[in-house]
Amino acid sequence: METTFTPFQSLLGGCLIGLAAVMLMALHGRVAGATGILSGLLWPADGTGRAWRGAVVTGMILAPALYAVLTGAMPVVTVTAPSMAVLAFGGVLVGIGVALANGCTSGHGVCGMARLSVRSIVATLTFMVATGVTVYVLRHVLTGGAA
Q1: Residue 61, φ and ψ in degrees, nearest 5
Q2: pLDDT tens digits for 53-72?
Q3: Calpha distance 106→32 (Å, rounded)
Q4: 7-31 burial by CB neighbour count: b if 16+ within 10 A, else e?
Q5: CA 35, CA 22: separation in Å to the nearest integer?
Q6: What is the mean pLDDT of residues 29-56?
Q7: How many alpha carbons fall within 13 Å on the CB side of residue 83?
Q8: From residue 26, how far is each of 39, 52, 65, 101, 142 by CA, in Å?
Q9: What is the pLDDT of residue 1?
Q10: How far apart are the first and last CA of the chain?
């Protein structure tokens, strides 16, 4: 499995994510965590914030279509899981991790670390180590080092 190196697209995407996180904090006093935004839209605790949460989720859904209009092709996403059951299991594990960490990678990694939150720094380091171990095991242990 090869990972495509896209420095300019990655830099642009990172800048847009950073700008959006700063604007959300400045305008609404909220952390830009994708899981919190979605859960607050689906199950609002106080009934507020549905408009901006809806705009963010709508943007996430429509972004690939905008990409297609600008480039002439949909973004290519390749999922190499052996089955839908494995994907579902992975989704459940991610959900458990989000609940245990009180937030997702975007909330902790982008916003929490920018605020020098010790809890977010520890959570992000945990995410990164777990990701590294997972990729190593999937690419080199389970596949016999073929990747």
Answers
A1: -75, -40
A2: 999 999 999 999 998 999 99
A3: 7
A4: eeeeeeeeeeeeeebeebeeeeebb
A5: 17
A6: 87
A7: 3
A8: 21, 13, 28, 24, 46
A9: 56
A10: 6
